[in-house]
Amino acid sequence: MAEPTKKISTRKEHKNEEANGNRKQKRTLWVQIRMFPIWLRIILVIVLIVLAAALGAMVGYGVLGDGEPRDVLKWETWQHIIDIISGKK
Questions:
Q1: Element (DSSP H or E) covering residue 53
Q2: Per-residue pLDDT for the chain (89 aa), expressed as one digit of tens each?
Q3: Do residues 68 and 62 lie in contact, with contact meaning Cβ atoms separated by under 8 Å?
Q4: Element (H, E) at 26
Q5: Could you tell me the sign of the dihedral formed by the alpha carbons of 59, 60, 61, 67, in that order?
Q6: Which residues 6+ apart lie within 8 Å of 70 measured at CB?
Q7: Rounded distance, CA 55 to CA 62, Å?
Q8: Whose CA is closest to 81, among 59, 51, 52, 61?
């Protein structure tokens, strides 16, 4: 008796089969329940950017600039920096 022959598929056929299977699967997965809404994610990213900028300025001013880190949060410090840049003082 002859053994049944297995069909040897080419790489292209294999990719096509996977793509067809994935398309069917993607159609069923388009409905997702999000744990955090998109607007909350955007707000969270903005808050994290502001915190990172504040902490970076505090480290730069306090450690590298030998100043008091909390001074970077005061308006007078920023006004002084702006005056130096613009050449007013």
A1: helix 38-59
A2: 556 666 666 777 766 766 666 555 555 556 677 888 899 999 999 999 999 999 999 999 898 988 899 999 999 999 998 999 998 86
A3: yes
A4: helix 11-28
A5: positive
A6: 58
A7: 10
A8: 61
Q: How far is CA 73 from CA 14, 18, 86, in A?
A: 60, 56, 20
Tokens of 28: 């069923």
pTM, rounded to two decimals: 0.55
pLDDT attached to residue 28: 55
Integer Cα distance of 53 and 47 in angstroms: 10
Tell the residue number behind the tokens 């808050």, with chain if given: 47
Give the C-alpha separation, 83 to 67, whole Å: 18
- Which pair of structure tokens corresponds to residue 67? 């100043």
What are the angstrom distances between the C-alpha of 46 and each of 10, 34, 41, 43, 66?
Answer: 49, 19, 9, 5, 29
Rg of the chain, C-alpha, whole Å: 30
